[in-house]
Write a structure and sequence with these properties.
By secondary structure, the chain is mainly alpha-helical. It has one domain (about 1-90, about 190-420). The chain is about 75% helix and about 0% strand. The chain has helices spanning about 1-30, 30-65, 65-70, 75-85, 120-125, 130-150, 160-185, 190-195, 195-225, 230-260, 265-270, 270-285, 295-330, 335-345, 355-390, 405-420, and strands at about 95-100, 105-110. Strands 1-2 form a two-stranded antiparallel sheet. Helix 13 packs antiparallel against helix 14 (about 335-345) and helix 13 packs antiparallel against helix 15 (about 355-390).
């Protein structure tokens, strides 16, 4: 388990960057009114990858073992990396510099074949990354996850470890806010972007939507396997239904924004997660300058990751705490503690128990999942509030910030495909 966690951390460094860069490339190369259309392509490819991966992963797990789900990705990812490095044309965005007399001069940073490229030393590039801010935020997120996953579950809320992680969470977020506001030279959350209404409210809405969606992704398989008694492959097949519906919402939102040039009505009245996803990705950069596009997208991706983490952790905590209380009230005897631990940690093996215990577990898990789904519904309702404060803009009169390059645009789709794998 420790090896899997460490490997997922390493994968997150690359996967997070791919998710961000695919969106930044679209913002740079595609005209604003068409960005929703291209965002729908990217989101559709991502959800289709998830849709096909769920049943395929279940089949591989049932047939060959879960390790082969990771091994089968090695060669495809190497191939994708090869095309990225050797076959996609690099580009730089046209930026503006302010001269001493107050005029603006255009600085066209061309690709690597032109002598006008501004070369920065490696240490200067690394110096622009807010490593300390990222570390402080990571400590706060980790402490929060430990608090909600262990508190009331394997440890009492008054346990010294839980108290310590609670205090660490609060202090980390306070320190992060102060550091980003006053001390960071290149803050993780841009001070310019954080003052932008659409960036802030789009990111907040995305946070709560991803909190709900991440919870659904982690709990629906438990419902299929623990309550309905499905196998891993059957659970993956039924989970695929939700992922197949997302591209419909993505397509509708992308084409609506393309022809209407506006996004707000689609965010409010769209078709579930797919349309909200595309519309918010367009909204976050709808009224920021070209030099702040990457910062705005990175803020949204940060909120996305935190939403997925918080949603999964909180939903898991709700389920496990309720499971513990309900199982302890219904299972008695000398081996009750051992049996309860087995049920809570081996949901896939519940079918090995007696029919009476299987029915008991299904009922208890169903009640626990109901409370988790109430939390998910509340997250979606809260997401509506920041959406109402978005400023709608006309995207038809704006231009892309970099020359069009179809091979680079294709790279955005490839990026999300490899990230979803």
């Amino acid at each position: 388990m420790n090896q899997i966690i460490f490997s997922r951390v390493i994968a997150g460094f690359g996967g997070g960057g791919l998710q961000l860069m695919s969106n930044v490339v679209i913002q740079d190369l595609v005209a604003p009114q068409k960005r929703g259309q291209y965002q729908s392509y990217v989101s559709s490819v991502q959800t289709l990858g998830i849709a096909l991966g769920s049943p395929l992963g279940g089949f591989i797990t049932d047939t060959f073992g879960w390790r082969y789900c990771f091994k089968l990705n090695i060669l495809p990812l190497i191939g994708i990396g090869y095309f990225y490095v050797f076959h996609f044309t690099n580009y730089n965005v046209v930026t503006e510099k302010k001269t001493d007399d107050g005029d603006h001069e255009v600085n066209n940073r061309k690709n690597n074949n032109n002598a006008t490229v501004e070369h920065l030393l490696l240490w200067e590039k690394l110096g622009s990354i807010d490593f300390l801010g990222a570390f402080i935020l990571a400590v706060g997120n980790l402490a929060f996850a430990i608090t909600v996953l262990l508190g009331g579950n394997t440890r009492e809320w008054t346990d010294p470890l839980i108290t310590a992680t609670m205090v660490t969470t609060i202090l980390s977020f306070i320190l992060f806010g102060l550091y980003q506001t006053y001390w960071a030279r290149s803050p993780l959350i841009s001070r310019t972007c954080i003052a932008n209404r659409n960036v802030v409210f789009s990111s907040l809405a995305y946070f709560f939507i991803c909190m709900s969606n991440g919870s659904v992704d982690s709990t629906v398989p438990q419902f299929f396997m623990g309550v309905l008694g499905f196998s891993t492959s059957q659970s993956g097949l039924w989970t695929m239904m939700n992922a197949l519906a997302v591209p419909i919402g993505c397509y509708c939102a992308g084409n609506y924004i393309r022809y209407q040039g506006r996004f707000l009505s689609m965010v409010i009245l769209g078709f579930g997660f797919g349309s909200s996803l595309v519309s918010l990705l367009v909204a976050v950069t709808s009224d920021v300058s070209s030099k702040d596009v990457a910062s705005a997208m990175s803020i949204m991706m940060l909120f996305r990751s935190m939403g997925l983490l918080y949603g999964t952790a909180i939903a898991s905590s709700i389920i496990q705490c309720n499971l513990k209380v309900l199982l302890e009230s219904r299972i008695n005897g000398p081996s009750a503690e051992q049996l309860i631990r087995f049920i809570r940690t081996s949901i896939r093996e519940v079918h090995t128990l007696s029919p009476r215990l299987q029915q008991l577990v299904a009922n208890v898990l169903g009640q626990s999942l109901q409370k988790a789904y109430l939390f998910m519904a509340l997250s979606c309702m809260v997401a509506i509030l920041p959406i109402l404060y978005l400023r709608d803009t006309n995207l038809k009169n704006e231009q892309p910030t970099a020359p069009n390059n179809k091979r680079i645009t294709v790279a955005a789709v490839v990026a999300v495909t490899s990230d979803s794998s």
